[in-house]
Amino acid sequence: MQDNVFSEVLPLYPPFIKPASLFSSSLRCADLTLPEDISQLCKDINNDYLAERSIEEVYYLWCLAGGDLEKELVNKEIIRSKPPICTLPNFLFEDGESFGQGRDRSSLLDDTTVTLSLCQLR
Q1: pTM for the full model?
Q2: What is the pLDDT of residue 117?
């Protein structure tokens, strides 16, 4: 960058300083002061911090805490596993119309609401 070709462009760009790194060796909590009585940190135990968060963030935290949506839906019998061979039609016409298998409830819209437990987040 010391060449004359860059002399016009050089003032437009700030000089390179240390880049931001993902993992820093500097202490982030160097100026942190803790109270003498640790029980003061837990004074606001009655606050519902989950109510302040969006539903997407609560679901993400629920998954991180070990929540499994598919397991919950299987427990409520909304998802039922069926062998794939049992879902094939018995007879299929050239135009795509099939006969032989009854309509399965799992292929229909189910607007059942399942309430998930948040006990592992509290």
Answers
A1: 0.47
A2: 86
